[in-house]
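Need a sequence for this fold. Nothing fancy.
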């Protein structure tokens, strides 16, 4: 009697969002909050560090902030490979433990050099988390909710990024800057331990890697929306073969030869503009005679705009319904919005500055959530973590270059309105690149 052949991708893609998926969303949301907290924690600790270590050169503080971003650039593709080789769950837990422990160890640093080294090493783990979370959700969520669930989960980045500010405002005065890293270290360690119990492995990964039928059947049994299957069945993932080993060229096979470079360009362009806004807006607005407390509020509104964008895209399932058209829309809207911040600041129109900052957050993080989801959809299972990790890593070039170029432009004492006009340019480039991408995206059969 012939063994039954079961396409697990069809079972998962046509499944429902039951308790299993809701539990997956909760645990990955906690992971992403921990990631967002740690990547932004150094910025809130810098004032106390500079005071305690008698640092007077602002460039040293800049290098400490950049160190974790450089670590992310390296860690994203590195742990992407780990996820494709050893499993999504192993990569997620190990990367989370890595940056949790190293963030906590930062408490005991005695000079700027130690902090710089620890932030770089922690950045390796921070960078490794998101591509594997993206891959795991992409391989376990039903197709009609996949992008929406990824986007909902990634709103945790914006939420987590705002939490160090709360810790700094309420606890640093009494306990010192070290308390930020106590919290930033404990959170990912606790969540990673929770993952040992709660986090499932990708069933598609198990099949593509040739794991035993009993292991695959047990994994499917835990998915409450999937009917029980026999361990004696032959499990396959449609149109995918077991890899002999990771080859970088797989990221450029067929239509991916165009889609992969375009995806990288979208990451670089968006993160360049976003990190300029994130890093320089408070200082630039203060220079334009906006009250310092209100300038700081403008920075917070950028994050809140991102949370709103994520909830909007999740609720209306914009990518499932419209493909990558929302990316074009957000990029296009970002151009006049970001340019308008400068004009509003020059006109001393604080209310308009706040509105435009919020809308800029909607646009920047709306794009980022969308292309994070896209990086999990474009690639086959065998190289999904590597594809997503490489895109996230290369995109970090934009997050480093954006603030540096901003500093160069600011040093030239450009008028505020012209400065923000320049800051809008990466979004215009991203919009044009997305329009080109749409044609090849459709050819891939994804919209």
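Here you go.
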């Amino acid at each position: 009697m012939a063994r039954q052949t079961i396409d697990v991708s069809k079972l998962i893609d046509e499944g429902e969002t039951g308790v299993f998926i809701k539990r997956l969303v909760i645990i990955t949301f906690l992971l992403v909050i921990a990631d967002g907290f740690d990547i932004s924690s150094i910025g809130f600790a810098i004032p106390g560090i500079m005071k305690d270590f008698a640092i007077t050169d602002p460039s040293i503080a800049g290098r400490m902030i950049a160190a974790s971003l450089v670590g992310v650039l390296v860690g994203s593709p590195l742990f992407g490979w780990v996820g494709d080789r050893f499993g999504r769950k192993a990569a997620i837990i190990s990367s989370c433990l890595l940056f949790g422990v190293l963030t906590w160890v930062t408490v005991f640093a005695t000079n700027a050099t130690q902090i710089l080294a620890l932030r770089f090493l922690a950045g390796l783990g921070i960078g490794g988390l998101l591509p594997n979370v993206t891959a795991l959700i992409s391989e376990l969520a039903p197709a009609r909710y996949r992008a929406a669930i990824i986007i909902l989960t990634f709103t945790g980045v914006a939420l987590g990024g705002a939490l160090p500010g709360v810790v700094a405002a309420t606890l640093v005065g009494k306990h010192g800057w070290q308390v930020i890293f106590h919290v930033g270290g404990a959170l990912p360690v606790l969540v990673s331990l929770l993952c040992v119990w709660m986090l499932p492995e990708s069933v598609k990964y198990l099949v593509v890697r040739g794991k035993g039928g009993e292991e695959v059947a047990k994994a499917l049994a835990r998915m409450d929306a999937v009917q029980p299957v026999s361990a004696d069945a032959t499990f396959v993932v449609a149109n995918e073969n077991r890899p002999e080993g990771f080859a970088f060229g797989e990221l450029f096979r067929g239509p991916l030869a165009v889609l992969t470079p375009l995806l990288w360009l979208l990451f670089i362009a968006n993160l360049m503009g976003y990190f300029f806004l994130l890093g320089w807006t408070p200082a630039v607005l203060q220079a334009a005679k906006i009250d310092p407390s209100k300038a700081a509020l403008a920075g917070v509104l950028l994050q809140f705009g991102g949370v709103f964008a994520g909830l909007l895209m999740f609720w209306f399932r914009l990518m499932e319904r419209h493909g990558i058209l929302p990316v074009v829309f957000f990029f296009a809207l970002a151009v006049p919005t970001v340019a308008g911040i400068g004009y509003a600041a020059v006109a001393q129109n604080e209310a308009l500055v706040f509105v435009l900052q919020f809308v800029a957050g909607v646009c920047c993080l709306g794009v980022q959530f969308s292309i994070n989801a896209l990086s999990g959809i474009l690639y086959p299972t065998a190289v999904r973590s590597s594809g997503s990790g490489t895109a996230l890593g290369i995109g970090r070039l934009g997050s480093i270059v954006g603030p540096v170029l901003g500093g160069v432009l600011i040093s030239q004492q450009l008028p505020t309105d012209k400065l923000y006009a320049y800051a809008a340019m990466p979004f215009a480039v991203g919009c044009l690149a997305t329009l080109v991408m749409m044609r090849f995206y459709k050819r891939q059969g994804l919209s």
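For context: The mean pLDDT is 89.
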